[in-house]
Design goal:
Strand order of the largest sheet: 1-2
Largest sheet: 2 strands, antiparallel
Bound molecules: zinc ion
Number of helices: 2
Structural class: mainly alpha
Distance between the termini: 31 Å
Strand content: under 5%
Helix content: 40-55%
Order of helices and strands: HHEE
């Protein structure tokens, strides 16, 4: 009997990466949007002028590095190493894995 091995699909892995990237984008845009909103309302929502800086600091300096870390450390579905990071260098716009060369959004391990 001949065994046929089906190539594993990376669809679920890319879906998880997409959520991480959207969370990072949401943290960036949410921080900028909330800063603009709080500047426009002069912090009246949070208790007066100057309070918006604390909110902005909390938003930008905690959520953005956390979400950025999750994006850069996302494991490649083929090799398991961080897809966007090699050593101390992180390239979030790289078109392929920095370790094995898997193209971004590749459907399977055999994609070139
Ligand atoms: Zn890889």
């Amino acid at each position: 009997m001949r065994q046929v091995f089906k190539a594993p699909s990376y669809e679920a892995a890319w879906r998880r990466f997409r959520w991480r990237a959207l969370a990072h984008l949401g943290a960036l845009l949410g921080g900028v949007f909330s800063a603009a909103l709080l500047t426009f309302t002069r912090g009246a929502v949070l208790g007066g002028p100057g309070c918006w800086r604390k909110y902005l600091g909390l938003s930008l300096f905690i959520t953005v590095p956390l979400t950025s870390h999750r994006v850069t450390r996302w494991p490649c579905p083929r090799c398991g190493h961080p897809f966007h990071q090699r050593g101390n260098v992180a390239l979030c716009t790289t078109p392929s894995c920095l370790h094995c060369g898997l193209p971004k959004w590749a459907a399977s391990a055999h994609a070139q």
